[in-house]
Design a protein that fits this description.
By secondary structure, this protein is of the alpha/beta class. The protein has one domain: 3-Layer(aba) Sandwich (Rossmann fold), CATH 3.40.50. The protein has eight helices and six strands, in the order H-E-H-H-H-E-E-H-E-H-E-H-E-H. The protein has a six-stranded parallel beta sheet with strand order 3-2-1-4-5-6, with helices on both faces.
Length: 225
Protein backbone atom coordinates (compact mmCIF):
# COMPACT_ATOMS: atom_id res chain seq x y z
CA UNK A 1 0.00 0.00 0.00
CA UNK A 2 1.34 3.41 -0.92
CA UNK A 3 1.51 6.35 1.46
CA UNK A 4 -1.78 8.20 2.14
CA UNK A 5 -4.39 9.33 1.77
CA UNK A 6 -6.06 6.15 3.04
CA UNK A 7 -9.66 5.33 2.35
CA UNK A 8 -11.96 3.86 4.98
CA UNK A 9 -11.80 0.56 3.11
CA UNK A 10 -7.99 0.67 3.18
CA UNK A 11 -7.87 0.89 6.98
CA UNK A 12 -10.65 -1.68 7.37
CA UNK A 13 -8.66 -4.08 5.23
CA UNK A 14 -5.56 -3.52 7.36
CA UNK A 15 -7.52 -4.08 10.57
CA UNK A 16 -9.17 -7.23 9.23
CA UNK A 17 -5.82 -8.68 8.24
CA UNK A 18 -4.29 -7.91 11.64
CA UNK A 19 -7.20 -9.46 13.52
CA UNK A 20 -7.66 -12.54 11.36
CA UNK A 21 -4.51 -13.42 9.36
CA UNK A 22 -1.26 -11.77 10.41
CA UNK A 23 0.93 -13.23 13.12
CA UNK A 24 3.69 -12.13 15.45
CA UNK A 25 7.15 -12.58 14.02
CA UNK A 26 8.93 -14.79 16.53
CA UNK A 27 9.52 -18.51 16.93
CA UNK A 28 9.22 -20.69 20.02
CA UNK A 29 12.74 -21.28 21.30
CA UNK A 30 12.28 -24.25 23.58
CA UNK A 31 14.92 -23.35 26.16
CA UNK A 32 13.39 -19.90 26.70
CA UNK A 33 9.77 -21.04 27.16
CA UNK A 34 7.42 -21.73 30.02
CA UNK A 35 3.90 -23.13 29.75
CA UNK A 36 1.33 -21.30 31.87
CA UNK A 37 -1.76 -23.41 32.64
CA UNK A 38 -4.34 -20.96 33.92
CA UNK A 39 -7.11 -21.89 36.33
CA UNK A 40 -7.83 -25.42 35.13
CA UNK A 41 -9.42 -26.03 38.52
CA UNK A 42 -12.52 -27.89 39.59
CA UNK A 43 -14.73 -24.79 39.70
CA UNK A 44 -14.26 -24.27 35.95
CA UNK A 45 -13.52 -27.76 34.67
CA UNK A 46 -15.22 -30.44 36.82
CA UNK A 47 -18.49 -31.19 34.99
CA UNK A 48 -21.71 -30.00 36.63
CA UNK A 49 -19.98 -29.21 39.92
CA UNK A 50 -20.01 -25.42 39.97
CA UNK A 51 -22.18 -22.66 38.47
CA UNK A 52 -18.93 -21.33 36.97
CA UNK A 53 -18.33 -24.54 35.01
CA UNK A 54 -16.93 -23.91 31.51
CA UNK A 55 -17.99 -26.90 29.35
CA UNK A 56 -15.62 -25.90 26.56
CA UNK A 57 -12.82 -26.04 29.11
CA UNK A 58 -13.70 -29.63 30.01
CA UNK A 59 -13.79 -30.61 26.35
CA UNK A 60 -10.30 -29.30 25.67
CA UNK A 61 -8.66 -31.12 28.60
CA UNK A 62 -7.25 -33.96 26.42
CA UNK A 63 -5.74 -31.43 24.01
CA UNK A 64 -4.17 -29.47 26.84
CA UNK A 65 -2.89 -32.62 28.55
CA UNK A 66 -1.10 -33.52 25.33
CA UNK A 67 0.57 -30.11 25.24
CA UNK A 68 1.56 -30.34 28.91
CA UNK A 69 3.10 -33.77 28.31
CA UNK A 70 5.01 -32.46 25.28
CA UNK A 71 6.37 -29.54 27.31
CA UNK A 72 7.52 -31.89 30.07
CA UNK A 73 9.19 -34.10 27.46
CA UNK A 74 11.24 -31.10 26.26
CA UNK A 75 11.94 -29.79 29.80
CA UNK A 76 9.73 -26.72 29.35
CA UNK A 77 8.58 -25.67 32.84
CA UNK A 78 4.86 -26.06 33.52
CA UNK A 79 3.41 -23.38 35.79
CA UNK A 80 -0.15 -23.80 36.99
CA UNK A 81 -2.27 -21.00 38.39
CA UNK A 82 -5.49 -21.25 40.36
CA UNK A 83 -7.89 -18.68 41.75
CA UNK A 84 -8.01 -19.38 45.48
CA UNK A 85 -8.86 -17.89 48.85
CA UNK A 86 -5.54 -16.13 49.38
CA UNK A 87 -5.02 -13.85 52.38
CA UNK A 88 -8.67 -14.17 53.40
CA UNK A 89 -9.69 -12.28 50.28
CA UNK A 90 -8.10 -9.00 51.33
CA UNK A 91 -5.72 -9.08 48.35
CA UNK A 92 -8.54 -9.20 45.77
CA UNK A 93 -9.55 -6.09 43.84
CA UNK A 94 -12.28 -4.52 45.94
CA UNK A 95 -14.57 -3.81 43.00
CA UNK A 96 -15.02 -7.48 42.07
CA UNK A 97 -18.09 -7.67 44.29
CA UNK A 98 -19.84 -5.18 42.01
CA UNK A 99 -19.14 -7.11 38.82
CA UNK A 100 -21.65 -9.44 37.14
CA UNK A 101 -18.95 -12.11 37.00
CA UNK A 102 -19.73 -12.76 40.67
CA UNK A 103 -23.41 -13.46 39.78
CA UNK A 104 -24.68 -11.26 42.65
CA UNK A 105 -28.33 -11.88 41.80
CA UNK A 106 -28.08 -15.62 41.22
CA UNK A 107 -29.83 -17.95 43.62
CA UNK A 108 -26.97 -20.18 44.70
CA UNK A 109 -24.47 -20.41 47.51
CA UNK A 110 -21.04 -19.35 46.23
CA UNK A 111 -19.26 -19.88 49.54
CA UNK A 112 -18.03 -23.48 48.90
CA UNK A 113 -16.11 -22.48 45.78
CA UNK A 114 -12.70 -20.97 44.99
CA UNK A 115 -11.20 -21.86 48.35
CA UNK A 116 -8.24 -24.17 47.80
CA UNK A 117 -7.69 -23.88 44.05
CA UNK A 118 -7.70 -27.61 43.36
CA UNK A 119 -6.48 -28.46 39.85
CA UNK A 120 -8.77 -30.81 37.90
CA UNK A 121 -7.68 -34.43 38.40
CA UNK A 122 -6.93 -35.19 34.74
CA UNK A 123 -4.38 -32.36 34.72
CA UNK A 124 -2.85 -33.04 38.11
CA UNK A 125 0.48 -31.22 38.54
CA UNK A 126 3.65 -33.27 38.80
CA UNK A 127 6.19 -32.75 41.60
CA UNK A 128 8.46 -30.62 39.37
CA UNK A 129 5.62 -28.30 38.33
CA UNK A 130 4.91 -24.96 39.99
CA UNK A 131 1.51 -23.87 41.31
CA UNK A 132 0.74 -20.19 41.86
CA UNK A 133 -2.39 -19.17 43.74
CA UNK A 134 -3.64 -15.80 42.55
CA UNK A 135 -6.23 -13.32 43.82
CA UNK A 136 -7.43 -11.87 40.52
CA UNK A 137 -7.57 -12.45 36.77
CA UNK A 138 -3.98 -11.90 35.70
CA UNK A 139 -1.27 -14.31 36.83
CA UNK A 140 1.20 -11.46 37.39
CA UNK A 141 -1.04 -9.50 39.79
CA UNK A 142 0.31 -9.83 43.36
CA UNK A 143 2.05 -13.16 42.63
CA UNK A 144 5.72 -14.24 42.34
CA UNK A 145 5.32 -15.23 38.68
CA UNK A 146 7.66 -12.60 37.25
CA UNK A 147 10.40 -13.38 39.76
CA UNK A 148 10.06 -17.10 38.99
CA UNK A 149 10.33 -16.50 35.24
CA UNK A 150 13.36 -14.23 35.63
CA UNK A 151 15.13 -16.79 37.80
CA UNK A 152 14.36 -19.45 35.20
CA UNK A 153 15.63 -17.11 32.45
CA UNK A 154 12.45 -17.49 30.39
CA UNK A 155 11.28 -14.85 27.95
CA UNK A 156 8.49 -16.67 26.09
CA UNK A 157 5.18 -17.73 27.64
CA UNK A 158 2.71 -20.22 26.21
CA UNK A 159 -0.72 -19.32 27.58
CA UNK A 160 -3.38 -21.99 28.08
CA UNK A 161 -6.40 -22.53 30.32
CA UNK A 162 -9.61 -20.72 31.24
CA UNK A 163 -11.20 -18.30 30.66
CA UNK A 164 -9.90 -17.12 27.30
CA UNK A 165 -11.27 -13.60 27.68
CA UNK A 166 -10.56 -13.10 31.38
CA UNK A 167 -7.64 -14.74 33.15
CA UNK A 168 -5.85 -16.00 30.03
CA UNK A 169 -6.02 -12.77 28.07
CA UNK A 170 -5.32 -10.61 31.13
CA UNK A 171 -2.18 -12.66 31.78
CA UNK A 172 -1.20 -12.33 28.12
CA UNK A 173 -1.61 -8.56 28.29
CA UNK A 174 0.41 -8.35 31.50
CA UNK A 175 3.16 -10.48 29.95
CA UNK A 176 3.23 -8.40 26.78
CA UNK A 177 3.58 -5.20 28.79
CA UNK A 178 6.52 -6.73 30.64
CA UNK A 179 8.33 -7.53 27.41
CA UNK A 180 7.63 -11.26 27.18
CA UNK A 181 6.95 -13.00 23.89
CA UNK A 182 3.48 -14.47 24.25
CA UNK A 183 2.06 -17.53 22.52
CA UNK A 184 -1.68 -17.91 22.98
CA UNK A 185 -3.14 -21.39 22.49
CA UNK A 186 -6.21 -21.14 20.27
CA UNK A 187 -7.55 -24.62 21.12
CA UNK A 188 -6.10 -25.01 24.61
CA UNK A 189 -7.94 -21.99 25.99
CA UNK A 190 -11.68 -21.86 26.55
CA UNK A 191 -14.40 -19.33 27.34
CA UNK A 192 -17.92 -19.66 28.72
CA UNK A 193 -19.37 -18.38 25.43
CA UNK A 194 -17.89 -19.50 22.07
CA UNK A 195 -18.27 -16.06 20.51
CA UNK A 196 -16.22 -14.50 23.30
CA UNK A 197 -13.44 -17.02 22.73
CA UNK A 198 -13.25 -16.22 19.04
CA UNK A 199 -13.39 -12.46 19.59
CA UNK A 200 -10.58 -12.57 22.15
CA UNK A 201 -8.36 -14.64 19.86
CA UNK A 202 -8.64 -11.87 17.28
CA UNK A 203 -7.61 -9.22 19.80
CA UNK A 204 -4.70 -11.36 20.96
CA UNK A 205 -3.56 -11.90 17.38
CA UNK A 206 -3.55 -8.20 16.50
CA UNK A 207 -1.80 -6.76 19.49
CA UNK A 208 -0.55 -9.13 22.18
CA UNK A 209 0.43 -12.64 21.12
CA UNK A 210 1.19 -15.19 18.48
CA UNK A 211 -2.02 -17.23 18.27
CA UNK A 212 -1.32 -20.90 17.58
CA UNK A 213 -3.07 -24.24 17.86
CA UNK A 214 -1.68 -26.96 20.11
CA UNK A 215 -0.48 -28.84 17.02
CA UNK A 216 1.36 -25.74 15.77
CA UNK A 217 2.93 -25.14 19.19
CA UNK A 218 4.02 -28.78 19.37
CA UNK A 219 5.55 -28.57 15.90
CA UNK A 220 7.59 -25.51 16.91
CA UNK A 221 8.70 -27.18 20.13
CA UNK A 222 9.92 -30.21 18.20
CA UNK A 223 11.53 -28.07 15.49
CA UNK A 224 13.48 -25.85 17.90
CA UNK A 225 13.92 -28.39 20.70
Amino acid sequence: MTSGPYSEQDVLNLATSAYEQDEAGFSIITGKCALIVIDMQDEFIKPHWSPDWVPAGTRMVPQLKGLIDKCRQFSIPVIYTAFADTHKGFDRPGSIKFMPIAHPNADYDRSPYFKDGKIYDALEPMPDDIIIYKPSYGAFYDTPLETILKNMEKDTLIISGTLTNFCCSTTARQAYERGYKVVFGSDVTAADLPEMHEAELKVMRKGFARVMSAAEITADIEKYG
